[in-house]
Amino acid sequence: MERHTLLLIKPDSTKKNHIGAILKIAEEHGFIIKELKIFQMDHEIGSKFYAMHKGKDFYEKLLKFMQSGMTVAAILQRDDAIHELRKLVGKTDYHNTKPETIRRIYGESITKNAVHASDSVEHAKTEIKIIFPDFSY
Ligand code: CMP
Question: Distance between CA 67 and CA 69 in Å, rounded?
Fold first, then answer.
């Protein structure tokens, strides 16, 4: 069971001042914030982070959006972190996910879907390394 995962609070949410509210939901669900960073994604980081989506029809739009404002990245810790955060975040398509999920509350479109959460142990490790290269478990 993986204890760490990565949460990104995307530019749509940071622009609307939802950083505190989203981190509060995570803390209320038992996550401990181990690392926290606010930054503006550039093309280099964005293309590394979303390499698995290269070539898909939404890729260029996604990269442009992710560079359009500030992003908050958090390494979150709890038991079964990846699975539990994915449940809390909800499905990619914000209006097609469960009512109490972060994307349903704060998302506004399939691209501007408020947050990103790692979907597997392999991706969590890669994504943490890209945003927090010095993090040690
Ligand atoms: P995220 O979890 O960050 O992973 C990839 C992102 O691409 C996704 O959230 C959305 O913001 C964005 N995206 C836009 N269109 C699509 C789509 N049709 N399918 C999946 N992801 C999409």
Answer: 6
Of 87, 90, 85, 64, nearest to 75 by C-alpha is 85
Expressed in angstroms and rounded, the spacing between residue 73 Cα and the centre of ligand 1 is 17
Distance CA 42, CA 49 (A): 11
CB contact at 8 A, 3 and 70 = no
- What are the φ/ψ torsions at residue 81 (nearest 5 degrees)? -55, -45
Instruction: State the Cα–Cα distance between residues 77 and 69, nearest whole angstrom.
Output: 26
Q: Is the CB of 128 under 6 A from ligand 1?
A: no
pLDDT of residue 137: 86
Q: Which domains does the chain have, with CATH numbers?
A: 4-131 (3.30.70.141)
pLDDT for position 93: 93
- Residue of 57, 58, 108, 130 to mutate, ligand 1, most atoms within 8 A of C-beta: 58
- pLDDT tens digit sequence for 16-46: 999 999 999 999 999 999 999 999 999 999 9
